[in-house]
Amino acid sequence: MNLHRTIGGLRSALVPHRPSARIGLVPTMGALHAGHVALLDAARSASDRVVASIFVNPTQFGNQDDLASYPRTEAQDCELAAAAGVDELFIPSREEMYPAGFATWVDVEQTAGLEDAFRPGHFRGVATVCVKLFTIVQPTIAFFGQKDAQQVAVVRQLVRDLDLPLTIRVIPTVRDSDGLALSSRNVRLSPAERQHALAIPRALDAGCSAHRDGRDPVAEARRTLEGTPGVEIEYVATASFDGQPTLAIAVRVGATRLIDNAPLTAAPDATRVREQPSPLGHRDN
User: Fold this and answer.
1) Which of 48, 66, 215, 259 has its CA 20 to 30 A from that of 252?
2) Which residues pair with 31 in a beta bridge?
3) Catalytic site residue from 4, 33, 36, 196
4) What digits encode the pLDDT tens for the residues 74-89?
5) Is 45 exposed, middle or buried, given 0-12, 13-18 or 19+ CB atoms closer than 10 A?
6) Is 211 a catalytic residue?
7) pTM exceeds 0.85, yes or no
8) Cα angle, residue 251 at apex, residues 249 and 256 outer, rounded to 5°
9) Rg for the chain (alpha carbons), in Å?
10) Secondary structure class of 172 (helix, strand, coil)
């Protein structure tokens, strides 16, 4: 595995593999876990050359305390990436990605609200850094996780609207044995807080079951969350992500913010890989 700190170094390393190689990109913010490994495995299977990036993108954080406390485990991440078969690992500095005088932003208009409503400017940062990575790497396929369903919808829309020549592939959410979706933020939960956080998969289960029975999935999911101490609800809503009706949840457990979702046509662990973009839309409760 080759480690690159500069844009120029990564671009030079990829030159010999163009134009015939299928290049797979897995963008991450580090603190890698089994969910990231699933993305890397998918990229390894579908690509001739796997590029992974680790960059805690400051422009998608509105809360500077959240940015400062985001877990950073570079040494372990490098070991995991190498074991997963990454060919080129890109770990740039903030100054490399946003040099002095940087003033260009990508803003995808949305109808869904949800994350953007609670984190103003978040998706502007996400869209901008993704376009930068797509321009630097020029991947054939980029891999994202279903857990960040709204982010995926935003990225798909910018790829479609800007006619970027790549495919976005979504990999199902990876869950721990207790049902909690794997997230780099989970390490910040105390043992008691983790037990409280298990209300999230329970709420998704309840919402999906209600939907299958013709009842309101939002009301059932919210009822489960409201009955759990230590859980502060930010939103519970249904949304259409990539044409798929989805139950989406965001909560705070202690100081840690967690999101999760489940397609409403299936149980939470039965997400599908989808590649076709479609409009966004939502219904809050």
Assistant:
1) 215
2) none
3) 36
4) 999 999 999 999 999 9
5) exposed
6) no
7) yes
8) 135
9) 19
10) coil
